[in-house]
Every structure is written in C-alpha cells, then in structure tokens.
C-alpha cells in the first residue's frame, strides 16, 4: 500500500507533527517563497576561473576601499567606492603622485593634499561593472565594509569582475 505523505502531514497523522502538519507546510512554502525572492547583490567573480569569490546583499549601500601598489610609481593608490543597487560609484582617489600612468579627469571632483596623498574627492563616476587584475607584486587588497580580501595573495594575475546582480536569496546563499 502506497502512503500519501502530504495527506498524512495535512491530517496530522505523522509522528513528528500530530497536530501541526498544516502549519509546517505553510512555513515551508513561505520559506521557499522568501528564498526565491530576488535581491540586489554586490558580486565579485573570478573571470579567469569562472567562479564567484564574494557576494553580499545590498541593503542601502556598501563602502569599498580598493588599495594597490602602482606598478610604475611604486607607491600606494587607494580608490573608494559606494556600491548601491543602481551601480558602483567611484567617490575618492588617493594618489601618491600624478606621475606616469595615474589617470585624472580635469574637472572631476575636488582636490587636496592629506597625509602625503593627492586626494580627489566627490568624483561621482558611476559604472555598472569594474574589472581588476591583481598582480603578486602589487599588494592588492579590497576592503568591503570591515572585511578585507587579499587579492594579490589569493588571485594573482586573475581578472576579477565587480558587478551588481539580481539573485535569489538561495543563489546568494549557495555562492
């Protein structure tokens, strides 16, 4: 004789839920609906390996600091971003000099000198994606809120893509 487990659960004829079968089914359905609901997430993908290395739900915004040693000037560069559901925005750039290979768009942001850096604030450059390629010699790190990822140590010479993606909570959890 084949048993109808859903029917037994709804009637409360299973040992673990004698009177709560319907409530358990409703809770499971609500959980599945919640897990399937799409959310905006900040995602870092290793394009070289085809894997996701970081994913985080964007509630309001995330603060990101991207730091590396410039290959020509041999001094630290710090770029600060705000990540929102609409995209990634470059807000500040801290440069040790304006020498070879250090870009600057005239009229973008306001400048000052702080702690030995040329600081450009209020840049406001918006983008939908950003690519970085850490090298082993560049001491490349990315700090997202309070979590720092050592990109040069873990992903030297890989191409990393930073994007905003719509993912279900289940997809986000599995990444």
Structure, explained:
With 175 residues, the protein is an alpha+beta fold. The relative contact order is 0.20. Helices cover 19% and strands 43% of the residues. The protein folds into 2 domains: 5-36, no CATH class; 40-174, no CATH class. The chain is built from 4 helices and 12 strands. Strands 3, 4, 5, 6, 7, 8, 10 and 11 form an 8-stranded antiparallel sheet that branches. Strand 1 (38-46) and strand 2 (51-57) form a beta hairpin. The protein has helices spanning 5-11, 21-36, 151-154, 169-174, and strands spanning 38-46, 51-57, 62-69, 76-84, 87-95, 110-114, 117-121, 125-127, 129-132, 141-144, 147-150, 160-168.
What is the multimeric organization of the chains shown? Answer: single chain
Proportion of strand residues: 35-45%
Shape: elongated
Number of domains: 2
What's the overall average pLDDT, rounded?
81
Number of strands: 12
Structural class: alpha+beta
> Portion of residues in helices?
10-25%
What's the gist of this structure?
The chain crosses the membrane at residues 20-36. This protein has helices spanning 5-11, 21-36, 151-154, 169-174; strands spanning 38-46, 51-57, 62-69, 76-84, 87-95, 110-114, 117-121, 125-127, 129-132, 141-144, 147-150, 160-168.
Question: Can you lay out the helices and strands and say which pair or pack?
Answer:
Layout lengths: L4 H7 L9 H16 L1 E9 L4 E7 L4 E8 L6 E9 L2 E9 L14 E5 L2 E5 L3 E3 L1 E4 L8 E4 L2 E4 H4 L5 E9 H6 L1
Antiparallel strand pairs: 1-2, 1-12, 3-4, 3-10, 4-5, 5-7, 5-8, 6-7, 9-12, 10-11
